[in-house]
Amino acid sequence: xxxxxxxxxxxxxxxxxxxxxxxxxxxxxxxxxxxxxxxxxxxxxxxxxxxxxxxxxxxxxxxxxxxxxxxxxxx
Length: 75
What we know:
Layout (H helix, E strand, L loop, with lengths): L1 E2 L5 E6 L4 E6 L4 E8 L5 E4 L5 H24 L1
Antiparallel strand pairs: 1-2, 2-3, 3-4, 4-5
C-alpha cells in the first residue's frame, strides 16, 4: 500500500500482465493501472490519479522492484 501526495491510500496489486492494478483503499474501487514495458517505461491507464500521483505510484512500484532484484542477487 502507498500513500500519495494528496493523502490517497492506494493498494497496488500485480496483475497477470505487465502492469499493476491500483485500488483506492478507502473507497474500495479500482482507480486504474500502471503498465511497464521492457525498458521500465510506464503509462497510467486510468482517469482518477493526477500526474503527481501517477509519478508517485510508478516510482513506488519501480523502486520496490529494483530493491527486490538487488536483494535476490545478493542471496
